[in-house]
Design brief:
10 helices
C-alpha cells in the first residue's frame, strides 16, 4: 500500500489498515486519528507532526521512525517497537505502551503523563525533561536511560530497572519506587520528597543534594551511596543498609532510622536534631562532629572523638519497665489504655503506648524513648495508674536529692550538670501531672485487683545499665491471698519505708552514661 492509497481510503472513512507495509513512507503532518495500524510496518517512516491520537498501533514496527511532535495521545501502542525512533516533543499522554520497546528512543521533552508503560523497555532512551506524571512504569527497564530534569511526580516505578540511569534534577516527588533497582543511578539534586523507596536497591547511587524529605527508605540498600548534603528530614530509614555510605552534612532532622546499619559510614557534619541515636550499627563509622540545632543552622555543634562517637551512637534504646505482679485481663487492659490516653492529654511525653508482655503471673509494661533524659520523668508518669505510684514517686525524688547532696569535687562538673538537668526535667514533669486525677478515668476504680498489685519500676539507659527505682516489699510472694488485693494495704507508709534505694554509687554510674557532650561552635 502506498501513501496516496492510504490517504484516499482514510478520507472515505476506512480505518482498518492492519499489517499495512509503510516502510520509509512520508506521512508527516498527516491526520490518521483513530486509525488501526496494528501489526503494521512503519519502520524508518516519517510521521513528524502526524495526528495519531486514539490510533491502534499495537505490535506495529516503528523502528528508527520519525515521530517528532506527533500526537499519539491515548493511542494503543502495546508491544509496539519504537527502537531508536525520534519522538522528541511527541504527545503520548494517556497512551497504552505495555511491553513496548523504546530502546535508545529519543523522547526529549515528550509528554507521557498518565501513560501505561508497564514492563516496557526504555533502556538507553533519552527522556531528558520529559513529562511522565502519574505514568505507570512498573517493572519497566530504564537502565542507563537519561531522565535528567524529567517530571515523574506520582509515577509508579515499582520494581523498575533503573541501574545506571541518569535521574539528576528529576522530579520524583510522591513516586512509587518500591523494590526498584537503582544501582549506580545518578539521583543528584533529584526531588524524591514523599517517594516510596522501601526495599529499593540504591547501592553506590549518587543522591548528593537530593530532596528525600518524608521519603520511605525502610529496608532500602544504600551501601556506598553518596548522600552528601541530602535532605532526609522526617525520612523513614528503618532497617536501611547504609554501609560505607557518605552522609557528610546530610540533613536528618527528625528522621527515623532505628535498626539502620551505618557500618563504615561517614556522618561528619550531619544534622541530627530529634533523631534517635539508638538501635544503630556504627562499627567503623567516621563522625568528627554533628549539628544538633533544631534548624540545622550549626548553632549547636557537638565535636566527637572516636571514643565519644561510640558512646554517642549506640545500639540500646532507653526504657522504663513497670513489672506488675499480676496478669493483665481484658478489662484491666482497656482501663490501662484509657488511663494512659487520659494522662497523655496532660503529658505529651507519654505519647506512645507501652509494649505489653503478659504471662500467667506477671505483666511487663515497657516504655521506649529516644533520650536518657526522659527516663526519670517518664518513670514518674508511667506509674501513675498504680497504687505504688506514691512510693515510686518518693523513691525517684529521694534518689535525685541524694545525688544533689554529693560533693561537687566528688562528682565533677559534668555529673553535677547532669543532675541539675535531671532535677529541672523532673520538676517540670511533676508540675505537668499534678492536676491529673487518675480516678476520673471511667472503670479504673473497678479494676483495682490489677492496679493494686505489687510493682517494680526498672530503668535501662542507653548503654543497657539497669537501675531498680522501686521494688514492692512483697513483690513475687505468691503465698499472699490474691482476693485481698482489692483493698489497699493498711499501712502504706511502712511499704514506702521498706523499699530500699539503690546505692548512690550505682545511681551515679547510671547517669554518667547519659551522653552529655561538651558543645563547641564550628569554626
Amino acid at each position: 500500500m502506498n501513501v496516496d492509497e492510504l490517504i484516499v481510503k482514510y478520507a472515505a472513512g476506512v480505518r482498518n489498515f492492519v499489517a499495512a507495509n509503510l516502510t520509509e513512507a512520508n506521512l508527516s503532518g498527516i491526520n490518521l486519528s483513530g486509525v488501526n495500524l496494528s501489526n503494521a510496518n512503519l519502520s524508518v517512516a516519517n510521521l513528524s507532526g502526524a495526528n495519531l491520537s486514539g490510533a491502534n498501533l499495537s505490535h506495529a514496527k516503528l523502528n528508527v521512525a520519525r515521530l517528532s511532535g506527533a500526537n499519539l495521545s491515548k493511542a494503543i501502542l502495546n508491544q509496539a517497537n519504537f527502537n531508536v525512533a525520534n519522538l522528541i516533543r511527541a504527545d503520548m499522554g494517556g497512551a497504552e505502551l505495555v511491553q513496548a520497546a523504546l530502546i535508545r528512543a529519543e523522547l526529549i521533552r515528550a509528554e507521557l503523563s498518565g501513560c501505561n508503560l508497564r514492563s516496557a523497555n526504555l533502556s538507553g532512551a533519552d527522556l531528558r525533561e520529559a513529562t511522565l506524571r502519574q505514568a505507570n512504569l512498573s517493572r519497566a527497564s530504564l537502565n542507563e536511560a537519561n531522565l535528567r530534569g524529567a517530571f515523574l511526580t506520582g509515577a509508579n516505578l515499582e520494581q523498575a530497572n533503573l541501574n545506571g540511569t541518569d535521574l539528576s534534577r528529576t522530579d520524583l516527588s510522591g513516586a512509587n519506587l518500591r523494590e526498584a533497582e537503582l544501582r549506580q543511578a545518578n539521583l543528584s539534586r533529584a526531588n524524591l520528597s514523599g517517594a516510596d523507596m522501601s526495599g529499593a536497591n540504591l547501592r553506590w547511587a549518587d543522591l548528593s543534594g537530593a530532596n528525600l524529605r518524608w521519603a520511605d527508605l525502610s529496608g532500602a540498600k544504600l551501601s556506598g551511596a553518596n548522600l552528601i548534603g541530602a535532605d532526609l528530614s522526617n525520612a523513614n530509614l528503618l532497617n536501611a543498609s547504609l554501609v560505607h555510605a557518605d552522609l557528610t552534612q546530610a540533613r536528618l532532622i527528625k528522621a527515623d532510622w532505628i535498626g539502620a546499619d551505618l557500618t563504615g559510614a561517614i556522618l561528619t557534619g550531619a544534622k541530627l536534631y530529634a533523631v534517635s541515636r539508638f538501635g544503630l550499627k556504627t562499627e567503623g563509622m567516621t563522625c568528627e562532629w554533628v549539628d544538633l540545632s533544631p534548624d540545622g543552622d550549626r548553632t549547636e555543634i557537638f565535636r566527637l572523638t572516636t571514643e565519644e562517637s561510640k558512646k554517642f551512637f549506640n545500639e540500646t534504646l532507653p526504657t522504663v519497665r513497670i513489672i506488675v505482679d499480676a496478669p493483665l485481663d481484658m478489662e484491666a487492659n482497656l482501663a490501662l489504655a484509657t488511663t494512659y490516653h487520659h494522662i497523655a492529654k496532660h503529658y505529651p511525653g507519654i505519647g506512645n503506648p507501652p509494649s505489653l508482655e503478659v504471662s500467667s503471673r506477671k505483666t511487663i509494661l515497657t516504655f521506649r524513648m529516644d533520650s536518657n533524659d526522659q527516663l526519670f520523668p517518664l518513670a514518674y508518669v508511667a506509674i501513675l495508674p498504680f497504687y505504688d505510684a506514691a512510693a515510686t514517686h518518693k523513691n525517684i525524688i529521694a534518689l535525685l536529692h541524694i545525688l544533689q547532696s554529693q560533693n561537687i569535687d566528688t562528682l565533677g562538673l559534668k555529673d553535677n550538670y547532669r543532675i541539675k538537668q535531671l532535677t529541672a526535667a523532673l520538676s517540670k514533669t511533676i508540675n505537668q501531672v499534678s492536676a491529673i486525677d487518675i480516678f476520673q478515668v471511667p472503670g479504673l476504680k473497678d479494676k483495682v485487683n490489677f492496679f493494686h498489685a505489687p510493682t517494680q519500676t526498672v530503668l535501662n539507659n542507653s548503654t543497657d545499665q539497669t537501675l531498680n527505682v522501686y521494688h514492692h516489699p512483697v513483690f513475687g510472694k505468691r503465698f499472699m491471698n490474691l482476693s485481698n488485693l482489692g483493698s489497699p494495704p493498711k499501712n502504706p507508709s511502712i511499704e514506702i519505708q521498706n523499699s530500699t534505694l539503690p546505692p548512690v554509687g550505682t545511681v551515679i554510674e547510671f547517669i554518667k552514661e547519659f551522653n552529655y557532650l561538651e558543645k563547641s561552635q564550628q569554626s
